[in-house]
Design goal:
Blueprint lengths: L12 E2 L3 E5 L12 E4 L21 H9 L6 E5 L5 H10 L3 E9 L10 H12 L15 H12 L6 H5 L11 E8 L6 H8 L16 E4 L7 E2 L5 E2 L12 E3 L3 H4 L30 E4 L9 E2 L5 H4 L11 H10 L8 E3 L6 H9 L3 E5 L2 H18 L1
Parallel strand pairs: 2-14, 3-4, 3-13, 5-10, 10-12, 13-14
Antiparallel strand pairs: 1-2, 4-6, 5-6, 7-11, 8-9
Helix pairs in contact: 1-2, 3-4, 9-10
């Protein structure tokens, strides 16, 4: 990629395929971007980090500036937190993007962040009653400090006060098991067909993102001209590349897989047409059957959470996304010829690594210099491995 043609600011790091900028994405003047794939701040004040408490993701102006860098029809994929992604989605929409869908990355390894209300009541009581023996507590000395210390040790397992026993089993939050991914699109210049021919950007890369699997479809009558496939299309055989991609992605954990019990090959299901002419050539009441893994999680794209090796690949970053997941998302918005993917909140640079893996030119921006340092190190290590 000839970066000189784009009149970019001085890079923090660059090579033939990746261009990293240390700065505020709202202060950059870019153009000709074919797609945006990003994991912006969720504005939760995560781990006390300043970059996650500025409100930048909630501002329509942020997403308007990003949109102005894009070609008509350019898709946008933006992660969000379950508590705040609606604010990000509204800001994206108010900036002129069209909301097209919401993907879900489902996983089973989230750690519950829930306060035990029973223990909180006991702790408050232990701190409030000084120098007194609390119900069911034992002390190691006569001082109030000794009582409080022993009390806290006991409340680590069982509620002690009557009030705490009443609230035993109550908490303040649920276990996190998914992250939403907002799918939006820069408004088209006319139709999808016109946009594709005029700007080289349109839609999603469906066939390259199909989910591989063994599927066997058949109609109950061999004379039927065609059948209905699991992706909703018609024809006499399923697509050789696999299932139509879904808006659900999972990490393959036992907890998630249990939601999709396996069905035995050969299980039959049917469709009873209501139209007098039938469905796909069928007569009234004649069902269409199929077999295969229709009840399995195999029909959705699988991607585990970031491994220890990925998290330790030249960096220590608190919000690393799996490379396989970002590769899949970048592939989904890859165009046939012209590509330039932008990540305006690139963090540790996983989107840039994914683009490099796919051979897609990309630009990453981040206002946090430590994150840029991590991303640059990962990118340089990736180049060394390729060489």
């Amino acid at each position: 990629m000839n970066w000189n043609n784009l009149e970019l600011p001085e890079p923090y790091y660059s090579d033939e395929s990746c261009y990293l900028i240390h700065g505020d994405c709202r202060k950059q003047s870019l153009s000709e971007v074919s797609a945006v794939v990003t994991d912006p701040p969720y504005e939760l004040g995560f781990m006390g980090k300043a970059w996650d408490s500025r409100g930048v993701s909630f501002l329509p102006e942020t997403w308007r500036i990003i949109r102005e860098s894009c070609k008509p029809g350019a898709p946008l994929l933006s992660f969000g937190g379950t508590r705040t992604f609606h604010r990000i989605a509204v800001a994206i929409e108010d900036a002129g993007w069209e909301i097209r869908d919401t993907l879900m990355w489902v996983y089973g390894s989230g750690f519950p962040k829930s306060l035990d209300i029973s223990k909180a009541i006991d702790k408050a009581a232990g701190e409030y009653v000084k120098g007194e023996v609390l119900p069911s507590s034992r002390t190691t000395g006569a001082s109030g400090t000794g009582i409080a210390t022993t009390f806290r040790e006991k409340t680590a397992t069982n509620p002690q006060t009557l009030e705490a026993k009443l609230w035993d089993g109550w908490g303040t939050g649920l276990k996190p098991s998914f992250e939403p991914i907002i799918l939006a699109m820069n408004p088209l210049d006319g139709t999808f067909a016109n946009n594709a021919l005029k700007h080289g950007v349109a839609g999603l890369n469906i066939d390259e993102c199909r989910v591989e699997g063994k599927y066997k479809w058949r109609a109950s009558d061999s004379k039927v001209e065609g059948s209905i496939f699991k992706d909703g299309s018609f024809g006499d055989k399923p697509h050789p590349a696999g299932r139509f991609p879904s808006n659900l992605i999972h990490n393959g954990s036992d907890e998630v897989l249990a939601l999709f019990p396996q069905t035995k090959s050969g299980n039959w299901r049917g469709y009873k047409p209501k139209s007098p002419r039938g469905f796909a050539g069928q007569k009234i009441g004649q069902p269409i059957f199929w077999n295969g893994d229709s009840g399995s999680a195999a029909r959705f794209f699988y991607c585990a959470k970031a491994s220890r090796s990925e998290r330790g690949e030249g960096c220590v970053h608190p919000t690393v996304k799996p490379l396989a997941l970002m590769t899949y998302l970048c592939k989904l918005v890859k165009m046939p010829e012209y590509n330039l993917i932008l990540d305006p909140f690139c963090g540790s640079g996983t989107t840039l690594l994914a683009c490099r893996k796919l051979g897609i030119p990309c630009i990453g921006i981040d206002s946090d210099e430590k994150s840029c340092e991590i991303a640059a190190k990962r990118l340089s290590q990736s180049v060394m491995r390729l060489e």
